[in-house]
Structure formats: structure tokens, C-alpha cells
Amino acid sequence: MYVMMNIEKCTGCEECLSSCPFDAIEIREGKAFINENCQVCMACLSACPEGAISEIEKEEPVEFDIQKFKGVWVFAEQREGKVASVAYELLGAGHRLADELTTELSAVLFGASESEAQELIRWGADKVYFSTDPVFEKFNDEPYSQLFIQLIRKHQPEIVLAGATPIGRSFIPRVAARLGTGLTADCTSLEIDRETRNLLQIRPAFGGNIMATILCPNKRPQMATVRPRVMKRGQYNEKRTGEIIPVNPDGISTRTKVVETVKEISDIFVNLQEADIIISGGRGLGNPQGFKLLEKLAGLLGGAVGSSRAAVDEGWISYSHQVGQTGKTVCPKIYFACGISGAVQHLVGMQSSDIIIAINKNPEAPIFNVATYGIVGDLYEIIPLFIKKIKELRGMGESGSG
Ligand SMILES: Cc1cc2nc3c(=O)[nH]c(=O)nc-3n(C[C@H](O)[C@H](O)[C@H](O)COP(=O)(O)OP(=O)(O)OC[C@H]3O[C@@H](n4cnc5c(N)ncnc54)[C@H](O)[C@@H]3O)c2cc1C
User: Is the CA virtual torsion 137, 143, 149, 155 positive or negative?
Assistant: First the structure.
């Protein structure tokens, strides 16, 4: 319940001011307004000679049966008509969740071709709701959220997953708010409580000092976003079949138009999230020149150079190389952690890598807890040995050629 002032009826006579014990009525430009001090004591209700003040019943939340919600959905974002890699990773996670719930896995794809929808089926989707309407070609919050909300209301999935990408971060919170349900951003792991069918949405909290498990027990769908490269892709099956369901964006209105999308230059040069091999350096490098040594190794292995936040904070390398909670999440085949201690905020950004090779002087460094191979020693002695050995194996002379 709350108190409402009908501005049309208010004459600005100020009769109501003295009725409020909390100074919650003020006059602005000749009209009375209720401000944030209002305690809903109702003392003002009879104070207005024009009857401009009234009490309003708050809209009771609509009761809904959470049992009716079935199915796991993945929002498959596309860029320039190509489904983004994060969508395939979410299908991998979604497939596992759907199996546990013995339900279907569906994908939602706007603004790409039918062959891209087929690709989603081959990566695990049973159904794809998709629209090729030109309004979806370039990402725009308004039409995307409107159609997505319509589809969710109609088909009532119990879980909705999306990428924690600039696109997902932009419109998924709006979708969750409109549906009156919860959303957990940047999950690092997703599990199912089979008894309640609740999604256990696990993510770092309190500056990465704890891993929190977040539930949305009374609302559906349960919505979560996951950063790229956190989940692994599932199995690709070229022969897999599924249903492609065209959807119509009828009745969708948009007040804005995306004129142009410009790529950030750092993303072009530091393609950390696409690299199969990453050589990362931390404060243990001791100076910015240390990154030159890492670049040498990266060059030989065809990898990219990453860093811890400490090295970025020292000014040794730019932020676009940072791996971790406030940097990029990566999942390469091989991740070298050189002079990185293994703080939890760094680990959440790289611990899904297939192989982790840690080089650290301190045998007690926490990075060794997640390392596949740990080398205790000085990185300035060990990395040149790596470089020498690779060159030997490739029959390269000291000049690097041959
Ligand atoms: C909210 C928040 C967000 C954060 N986000 C991130 C993030 O996104 N990414 C991130 O990385 N951090 C992040 N941090 C910071 C994080 O807590 C750590 O401070 C940081 O990761 C430490 O970086 P480091 O391992 O390079 O440095 P240190 O912890 O100082 O470790 C240096 C390591 O190098 C070793 N070493 C020293 N010399 C040598 C040598 N010659 N050879 C071999 N080993 C050597 C040392 O034994 C030590 O283990 C965040 C922190 C907070 C509070």
C-alpha cells in the first residue's frame, strides 16, 4: 500500500503540509508532492479539501505455479550473422542441466540465417526459436528484449542461460526485471538440485573471497549469465536433428536505431579469448621487460600474452591482457602462469584451461593447487630453457630461423 497525490486535482493550497508528521509532503512549482520520507501513516488522507490524496493498494504479485515451467533455454547471440562461441558453450552446459532435469534444451536465435540455427541443433539444441527479421541484425536492447520476453511468457522455460557479454549484460537484466524473476550474473558453475529442480548458480562474491551459491526458488524462469570460455562446449554431431521454429516479431516497437557498431581496437590485437595457448605473467616478472621474454615464448608457440592484475596495476602491460575476475575469462588448451601467485580472482578467469603450467619460486604458491604441471624455480631461468628446447626440437638455430 502507498499514498498517491493526484496532481491534476491539487490546487497547491498547502492545507495538507501540516497533516504530515514526517515532512513527507512538499510543494514544488505550485503542486504538492509526496517524497521519500513517507511512512504510509495515512494521516494526510483526509487533509486535502479537493480529495487529491488517496491510498493505493500495491499490485499483489501474480501467483504462478512454478511446476508449469519446463525446459532449459539458451539465448544464442550472433555477431554479423555468426553465432558467438559462448552460445555453443552454453549449449554444452544447458545440455547437462536438461539431462539432469529430463527436459528439452532449446535455443533462441535472432538475426541469423537458418544454417546457423541448424548449427545450434548439431551442438545440442532440441529446438531453435528463431527470427530472421532485419530488426535483429544489429543488436538493439528494445526489440531483443521484447521478443525474448514474449517467447518466455508463451513457452515458460524453467531455466534461461545467456552469455555475460556486452549483448547479454545489456538486455538480459531488462528481460529478468520485466518477468519479475531473478538473475545471477557471471556464474562460474551451474548445478541442479534434483529434489527441488532449483538451479544452483555459483559465482564469486565479496570481491572473490567466497564462492556463493545463489538460488531463485520461488520464481521462474531461473536466469543466469555466464562469461565466454567458462563452460566447455558439448559434443558436436553433424547428423543431429531438431525442430526449427520461426517466430514473428509482430507488435514490437522500437524507439532507437543502431546506426553502426565499431569494434574496440584492443580486441582486435589481443585476441586472448580465442588463443589456444596463453603465456601469462604476474608481479613475479619484476619489471615490464619480463613480458618481452613471455612474448618470445608466445611467438614460438603461436600463443597470446596474458597477465595478472598486479602486472597491469604496475603499468607493465595494458588492461586488455588481464585475466581474471575483473579481466578476461579464458579457456585455452595450455595456460602458462609465470610469476603469478594464484589469487582466487585470477583463478576464476583461467582455471578451466585444459593444461595449466605454473612457474613460481614459492613452492607454497596457491597456483600449484590448480596446476597440471608445477615448476618450482625462477622464471628467468626456466622460460629460456623452454625456448631453447623448442628451438632444438624444431631444428632452429639461435637466430630463430631454420
Ligand atoms: C575485486 C578484485 C578483483 C580482482 N580481479 C583480478 C583479476 O581480474 N585478475 C587478477 O589477476 N587479479 C585480480 N585481483 C587481484 C588479486 O587478488 C591478486 O592481487 C593478483 O592476482 C596478484 O597478482 P600476482 O599473482 O601477479 O602477484 P603476487 O600475488 O604478488 O604474486 C607474485 C608471484 O610471483 C612469484 N615470483 C616472484 N618472483 C619470481 C620469479 N623470479 N620466478 C618465479 N616466480 C616468482 C612469487 O612467489 C608470487 O607467488 C583482484 C582483486 C580484487 C580485490
Answer: negative
Are 342 and 387 part of one and the same domain? yes
Q: Is the CB of 113 under 6 A from ligand 1?
A: no
Q: Which of the listed residues 189, 215, 246 is the one where a domain comes to its end?
A: 246
78 lines ligand 1 (CB under 6 A): no
Model pLDDT for residues 162-186, shown as the tens digit of each residue: 999 989 999 999 999 999 999 999 9
Residue-wise pLDDT tens digits, 43-77: 999 999 999 999 887 655 556 689 999 999 999 99
In a domain, 337, yes or no: yes
Report the distance separating Cα 325 and Cα 85, nearest Å: 20
212 shares a domain with 71: yes
Tell me, using a 6 A CB cutoff, whether residue 325 lines ligand 1: yes
Given ligand 1 and candidates 321, 340, 379, 385, which is best to mutate, with the most ligand atoms within 8 Å of its CB?
340
Distance, in Å, from the CA atom of 295 to the CA atom of 281, rounded to the nearest integer, reads: 10
Q: Is the CB of 340 under 6 A from ligand 1?
A: yes
Pairing outcome for strands 78-79 and 82-83: antiparallel
Whole-model pTM: value is: 0.64
Residue 258 lies in a domain: no
Would you state the cell numbers that stand for residue 256, as one nine-digit string? 532507437
Domain holding 141, by residue range, is: 66-246
